[in-house]
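My current task is to audit a protein record that another person submitted. My question to you is simply how this chain folds and whether the tokens agree. This is what I was given:
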Amino acid sequence: MTCKREDYISWDEYFMGVAALSAMRSKDPGTQVGACIVSPTNKILSMGYNGFPIGCSDDDFPWNREGAPLDNKYFYSTHSELNAILNYRGGSLENCKIYVTLFPCNECAKAIIQCGIKEIVYACDKYKDTDSVIASKRMLEAAGVKYTYYNPSGRKIELNV
């Protein structure tokens, strides 16, 4: 009798890999972020990446980080977490988990809390000392949303298709 493979990737590797692959769809030259929402039974429900809303051309809106508010990306771009939430058309996201390549800002934390997601797995927290992320963590903790750092296995995963 043949035994099953033992070197398959974990659920966390799989879902963070999907989030990382989603991030690669972002056209933002500065920061590419991806998200993957997963059901309590480990089914992928939705994905998202940071970019502009449908109908707002990637060529007509600014990608700048600096400059006047109407001349930079921040008034126009939608974060990966919110895109993943808005992309889901299947009903409730209660008790789901979201995998994100970058810790959610305060605005995304509000959306995560409001839609009922109960756990965040994040790969990077480079803005942890900013007011936005400090506020995010305060709200997530108050709402009982667990957040966990994704501990990479160090395994290299490649796509050769």
User: Anything to note?
Assistant: The longest strand covers residues 44-49. The first helix runs from residue 11 to 23.
